[in-house]
């Protein structure tokens, strides 16, 4: 793994595309502190516009955006700059979209919420060497809890609608929501 600060400024450019504004802001700050020159967008249209005349060397793109699919941005970036290293983030991971993302040029596919250190490792990992597994990965209970919270927020905090979409009894969901997040 190379150090980002060893690269020339033009090779430290990073595009972040995510419609979750608080997450985008936190990730933007974290990546800036790590030495990247960050541009961010909160939609497919914004991401495509940000590619502009000087496509970035790195990108972190959410799969599902309000105005479309983040894979459109991955594809457009790979056409303009085939050597760009892209990591796709998603709260809805499945094998088919992971395969599609890699075919379109992504170097990794991470589940949300992803840690900034894990994202940097994925972006900077050499092609021959796989990045090490995370030191403190989220537990399965935590991943489940995060997924439930995300669906709950997407359903505008409507317990009945969330329970229906998760194929879960409403009272069970209420008990889960009343508890603290697992470690």
Features:
DNA binding, phosphoprotein, Arc Repressor Mutant, subunit A, DNA-binding, 7 strands, CheY-like_superfamily, 44% helix, 183 residues, two-stranded antiparallel ribbon, 2 domains, TAT_signal
Quick rundown:
By secondary structure, the protein is α/β, with parallel strands linked by helices. The protein is built from 8 helices and 7 strands; from the N terminus they run E-H-E-H-E-E-E-H-E-H-E-H-H-H-H.
Question: Helices, strands, pairings?
Answer:
Layout: E1 13-17, H1 21-33, E2 37-41, H2 44-51, E3 58-62, E4 64-65, E5 68-69, H3 71-80, E6 85-90, H4 95-103, E7 106-111, H5 116-124, H6 140-154, H7 159-165, H8 170-178
Parallel strand pairs: 1-2, 1-3, 3-6, 6-7
Antiparallel strand pairs: 4-5
Helix pairs in contact: 2-3, 6-7, 7-8
């Amino acid at each position: 793994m190379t150090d980002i600060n060893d690269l020339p400024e033009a090779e430290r450019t990073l595009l972040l595309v995510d419609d979750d504004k608080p997450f985008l802001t936190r990730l933007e700050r974290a990546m800036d502190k790590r030495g990247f020159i960050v541009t961010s967008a909160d939609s497919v249209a914004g991401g495509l516009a940000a590619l502009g005349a000087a496509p970035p060397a790195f990108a972190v793109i959410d799969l599902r955006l309000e105005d479309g699919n983040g894979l459109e941005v991955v594809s457009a970036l790979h056409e303009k700059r085939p050597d760009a290293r892209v990591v796709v983030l998603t709260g809805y991971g499945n094998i088919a979209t992971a395969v599609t993302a890699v075919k379109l040029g992504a170097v990794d596919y991470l589940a949300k919420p992803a840690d900034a250190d894990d994202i940097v490792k994925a972006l900077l990992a050499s092609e021959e060497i796989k990045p090490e597994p995370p030191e403190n990965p989220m537990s399965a209970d935590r991943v489940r809890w995060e997924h439930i919270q995300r669906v709950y927020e997407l359903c505008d905090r409507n317990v009945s609608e969330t329970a229906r979409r998760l194929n879960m009894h409403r009272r069970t969901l209420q008990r889960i929501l009343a508890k603290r997040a697992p470690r």
